[in-house]
Specification:
heterodimer; A: 338 residues; alpha+beta; BirA Bifunctional Protein, domain 2; 2 domains; seven-stranded mixed beta sheet; three-stranded antiparallel beta sheet; 10 strands; B: 799 residues; Phenylalanyl-tRNA Synthetase, Chain B, domain 1; OB fold (Dihydrolipoamide Acetyltransferase, E2P); Phenylalanyl-tRNA Synthetase, Chain B, domain 3; 29% strand; elongated
């Protein structure tokens, strides 16, 4: 066989129309096989005159390289298009819905409690809970509310036995903690409380409270204001303002009702805040000297502040929940919203 | 408490609108809940006089001729039976509008033309609480001295604003119109920068001087119970309806008119905050003694109830016995009636705590007791008798006597205030001059000791809330304004906050269960006995009962979380939510040497946890799903536990188990009894026991760097044998390299013998020293096989 340019031309002609790997294999054998065209050309070298052998040899080498690389690249091309063909057959509709397992939820009251805890822990408060079943002593007596005191009317109480009751407030934890720990005290207590109130959209015979108590040298009303102001900003947003109005709780003096600027209208007045611009959150004040004396703390040495806010109230304000009954009904359509 | 804005304006001159006033009160700590605007609901109604009334034969109607002006009469047909000659009545003329919107037109009854209508309180849209019971039946009959031919609204204070106060028990001074007016004076004094002048608000009464003495001794026998008692005789009074003037005043105070004497005592109570009591003098014998009741002594009170008393009760007694429950309610026998001729008028100051105990021990709280128990103004008490006496003379006539008095009142005591304490407690700089200004505004007298930097303050006697230094500090804050004080963060040694263990543990449990797709619920701890009995959870001895429940629905404290959790499940199923898992972490209560409470955890599962979808089979919750959660939980807490078959009344008797740690019962689980719920699963655990047995401590454990070898085996065993026994036998072969035993198939039926089952396990072996060879693993299997043969008669099935 004569070496000529046509071999290369023919090869490219053939490989151009290759459709699959087996055809390519045939061509590979035809050109590069042991008895293939390229081998045949090498065999011719020995028949050539000495001076032409080198040039011819180089030409064949060249041709072999071209063919080899061309087959290689064609092969890669074929393989990749085959792979793509296979993958395309596995096409899915990516707009189909995902597969869902049941997803859980944490009760909104727990969420609020956890948030309250984390804000106060960040301010160095210790967190307690305390018993639901209380002694009259802790719930009333030690809190400067003796038996038959008119202030007891403010909290209609469930009794289990003589002097044993369901706590009407978390304030008994003030006494329990002050009896246990020495000042400086900085604590909150969170838990369920009970009052003989009929169930309606804003009252429930059971509800949760967060109680706060700080006792140390020189603790002041200004400290109380700063603490509740900071808490309210963290809980309800940086623009929240806090308002104190004089009020009466026998275990604090001065005593105060505390409100926050309405989260809906920002204080301008709207139906939610009954056009007052403020939402009542709970009581607060400076620990009454009688209370300090009752637990053996000298009111001339130590001063303290205390507050008690409703958890349900905080949740209702924060999340716009209109009815307290939702919390205890546990409709999953409610639970899953938070 | 409702206070008439109109009345306040009559008492003191100010220019605030009702809403402005309400806001100012609220900022001072006298909360106004809302302001009610009462508008007249009628038009063209005048006062007219009845000339005659004749019944129309053959009907139940009456023909009434009325004088409607000096020289004009009108005829009206009415069905009302309470109208008689000379009565003064509201007359709605033709064209008048009445409260239900009707317009009055001329109308013929037979051949008589009715030219208008006589009105009842309803037709005028008046608040019925302002009228006596008599007046509610039929036409409103006005007092006989009511001005005639006037527009009704000009003679009766119909149009007004009412401020609804929500006052706290320490505001004893404000439970009267006078009390509220004093706070208006404080508001004005603050605005005008002057000292409050309460003197001008006091009713001014000067009685004749040389009155005859009341022929009766009065004596406070128990001197710790009362500090002042005055009693006076008023002879020859005429008991009748109150005059037009008094009636209009009562209307503004919201007092039902009864008769002139009772109306006057009620007026003084509502207007000035001093409860009075009027006795029928002729029924009293020998003198008046204020003393504690003897145990077992009885009295029949005004409300007709025979009451058995104890030493907790304070009495007004005469020489024959109890005549009134002091400060709470009068006695029926000595009550003023229409026949009474001579009245004995009492004005007293009782010690607040004594009245609180007395009224509460009887469960009898009255207008009088709720004022006395907070503390009335002892300085006004003697004066109140004068005020009432003068009114009685005007309304009922009679001869006035000088009062008999026992006066044990303490001299006014000053309260000290250290300026330094005020500054320290309020946490803000406050100057002496400023404090003086605030005390002036509240009308306090004071002495300032410059050397000691201390005030001695004498608050008016009606301010019974001022007894200690802190009370005065509150007043400084009140007048300055609570919101005028600065906010100062606590300065203290830096310290981190901590959370008590049980709360941390509960948080851990919540987050753990959240990962299993469960929803936390919070349910009522108050339940009914019926609800508990339904699930056989009620136990008379152990269940905690509330002595004074609000309703039977909430008469017990739950001993278990089951009932309320099932209630939540039912509620959701009823709204067609049928696939869910819920859990609760909450307290349960029981009696065992007293009342006990502890935290439990409960889980309830029903329906599918993989819902209907196009990709996979739906998967329902089942016993083993629940058990899997618990096994994972115990594993996480490193608590070795085991399950034992055990039946519970509310669970499927063959699909329930108790969970034990060592020998301690820690909880239970099971399928719900099909009678209660179909295909639902429940468990309840004792959290305290869980916490005490658990360890949440984490520490790194070295794992093998060599690959493990897995080998599947199938074992033929007796059908009745518990699977755990087979697993225990595999474990008992004590092969250190056996790291994992996973049961992956249970098979019964062909071709196995009837009494056999096949259990297939995947066993995983790994060594810390090297890669295990196939031969080594074969040897392990042989060892296991031997154990199985020996201990459970098990046969390894080889293909």
């Amino acid at each position: 066989m004569e070496f000529n340019e046509d071999i290369e031309k023919q090869f490219f002609e053939k490989i151009k129309n290759i459709k699959d790997l087996s055809e390519l294999k045939k061509i590979e054998i035809e050109y590069l096989g042991k008895k293939g065209i390229v081998q045949e050309l090498y065999k011719k070298i020995k028949d050539l005159p000495e001076e032409k052998r080198k040039e011819f040899g180089e030409k064949v080498n060249n041709l072999r390289n071209i063919i080899e690389s061309s087959i290689e690249s064609t092969k890669a091309q074929l393989e990749s298009s085959l792979a793509d063909l296979k993958l395309s057959s596995e096409k899915i509709d990516v707009t189909l819905p995902g597969l869902h397992f049941q997803r859980g939820s944490i009760h909104v009251l727990t969420k609020v409690i956890e948030e309250v805890k984390s804000i106060f822990v960040s301010m160095g408060f210790d967190v307690f809970s305390g018993p639901d079943i209380e002694d009259d002593y802790y719930n009333f007596e030690a809190l400067n509310i003796p038996e038959h005191h008119p202030a007891r009317d403010m909290q209609d109480t469930f009794y289990l036995a003589q002097k044993i009751l369901l706590r009407t407030q978390t304030s008994p934890m003030q006494i329990r903690i002050m009896k246990k720990l020495k000042p400086p005290i900085r604590m909150i207590a969170i838990g369920r409380c009970y009052r003989r109130d009929a169930l309606d959209s804003s009252h429930s015979p059971q509800f949760h409270q967060v109680e706060g108590l700080v006792v140390d040298k020189g603790i002041s009303f200004a400290n109380l204001k700063a603490t509740l102001s900071e808490f309210s900003k963290k809980m309800f947003g940086e623009n929240t303002r806090i308002r104190f109005t004089p009020s009466y709780f026998p275990f604090v003096e001065p005593g105060s009702e505390t409100s926050i600027s309405c989260v809906i209208c920002g204080g301008k007045g709207c139906p939610v805040c009954k056009y007052t611009g403020f939402l009542e959150m709970g009581g607060s004040g400076m620990v009454h000297p009688n209370v300090l004396r009752n637990v053996g703390i000298d009111p001339d040495e130590f001063q303290g502040f205390a507050f008690g806010w409703g958890i349900e109230r905080i949740a209702m304000v924060k999340y716009g929940i209109p009815d307290i009954r939702y919390f205890y009904q546990n409709d999953l359509r409610f639970l899953k919203q938070f | 408490m409702l206070v008439s804005y109109r009345l306040l304006k009559e008492l003191i001159d100010f220019s605030y609108s009702p809403n402005e006033l309400a806001t100012k009160f609220t900022h001072l700590g006298l909360e106004v809940e809302h302001v009610e605007h009462v508008e007249k609901k009628f038009d063209k109604v005048i006062t007219a006089k009845v000339l005659d009334v004749t019944s129309i034969s053959g009907t139940k109607l009456f023909k009434v001729n009325l004088l409607v002006s000096e020289n004009e009469t009108k005829t009206v047909i009415t069905a009302a039976t309470n109208v008689k000659k000379e009565d003064i009545v509201p007359y709605a003329m033709v064209g008048a509008k009445i409260s239900d919107g009707r317009v009055i037109v001329e109308k013929y009854f037979g051949d008589i033309l009715s030219q208008g209508m006589l009105c009842s309180y309803n037709e005028l849209g008046l608040e019925s609480e302002f009228l006596s019971n008599q007046e509610k039946n039929g036409i409103l009959i006005l007092p006989e001295d009511t001005p005639l031919f006037k527009n009704f609204e000009s003679v009766f204070p119909v149009e007004d604003f009412y401020l609804e106060f929500s006052l706290l028990p320490d505001r004893a001074d404000a439970f009267s119109v006078l009390g509220i007016a004093r706070w208006v004076e404080i508001i004005l004094a603050k605005e005008e920068g002057r000292k409050a002048n309460f003197e001008k608000l006091q009713p001014k009464v000067q009685l004749e001087e040389n009155l005859p003495n009341t022929p009766f001794e009065v004596k406070i026998a128990d001197t710790d119970c009362a500090k002042f008692y005055s009693g006076r005789l008023i002879k020859n009074v005429k008991i009748k309806n109150s005059s037009y003037n008094l009636r209009t005043e009562l209307y503004k105070l919201g007092v039902h008119p009864i008769n002139n004497i009772v109306d006057i005592t009620n007026y003084v109570l509502k207007m000035y905050g001093q409860p009075l009591h009027a006795f029928d003098f002729d029924k009293l014998k020998g003198g008046i003694f204020v003393r504690r009741a003897k145990t077992g002594e009885t009295i029949k009170t005004l409300d007709g109830v025979e009451r058995v008393l104890s030493e907790k009760n304070l009495l007004i007694a005469d020489s024959a016995g109890a005549v009134a429950l002091a400060g709470v309610m009068g006695g029926e026998y000595t009550e003023v009636t229409n026949e009474t001729q001579n009245v004995f008028l009492e004005s007293a100051y009782f010690v607040p705590s004594v009245i609180a105990v007395s009224s509460r021990s009887l469960g009898l709280i009255t207008d009088a007791s709720s004022l006395f128990e907070k503390g009335v103004d002892p300085d006004f008490t003697p004066h109140a008798s004068n005020v009432a006496s003068k009114m009685i003379l005007e309304e009922a006539g009679g001869i006035l006597f000088k009062d008999s008095v026992d006066d044990l009142r303490d001299p006014k005591k000053g309260v000290n205030l250290r300026v330094s304490k005020a500054v320290s407690l309020l946490g803000d700089e406050i100057k002496v001059e400023e404090i003086k200004k605030y005390f002036d505004i509240e009308g306090f007298d004071y002495v300032f000791d410059e050397a000691k930097n201390t005030f001695t303050v004498y608050a008016p006697t009606f301010r019974q809330d001022i007894s200690i230094e802190e009370d005065l500090i509150e007043e400084i804050a009140r007048i300055k304004g609570y919101n005028e004080f600065k906010e100062t963060p606590i300065v203290s040694n830096l310290k981190s906050g901590s959370i008590e263990k049980i709360q941390e543990f509960n948080s851990f449990l919540r987050n753990f269960l959240l990962a299993y797709g469960l929803n936390e619920v919070i349910t009522s701890t108050l339940v009914s006995s019926a609800m508990l009995s339904k699930y056989k959870l009620f136990n008379e001895e152990k269940t905690v009962k509330i002595l004074n429940p609000l309703t039977e629905d909430m008469a017990y404290l739950r001993p278990s979380l089951l009932a309320t959790l099932l209630e939540v499940a039912t509620r959701n199923i009823n709204v067609n939510i049928k696939d869910f898992g819920i859990f609760e972490i909450g307290k349960v209560f029981y009696r065992e040497n007293g009342f006990k409470e502890k935290f439990n955890l409960s889980i309830f599962l029903i329906g599918d946890y993989i819902l209907k979808n196009p990709y996979k089979k739906t998967l329902p919750y089942d016993f083993f799903y629940l058990k899997g959660i618990l096994e994972d939980l115990f594993d996480e807490l490193k608590i070795p536990m085991f399950f034992e078959k055990q039946s519970y009344p509310y669970l499927h008797p063959y699909r329930s188990a108790v969970i034990k740690v060592k020998d301690e019962l820690i909880g239970f689980l099971g399928e719900m009894h099909p009678n209660i719920f179909d295909k639902a699963y429940y468990c309840e655990l004792d959290i305290e026991k869980l916490l005490n047995n658990s360890s949440l401590e984490k520490k790194f454990t070295q794992f093998s760097i060599y690959p493990s070898v897995k080998r599947d085996i199938a074992i033929l065993v007796d059908k009745d044998i518990e699977e755990i026994k087979v697993r225990d036998v595999i474990r008992s072969a004590s092969i250190n390299e056996l790291k994992n035993i996973v049961l992956f198939d249970i098979y019964e039926g062909d071709p196995l013998p009837k009494d056999k089952k096949s259990l297939a396990y995947s066993l995983e072996f790994v060594s810390n020293e090297r890669t295990l060879t196939s031969e080594e693993v074969d040897n392990y299997i042989l060892k296991i096989e031997k154990s199985l043969i020996d201990k459970v008669n098990g046969i390894l099935r080889r293909q």
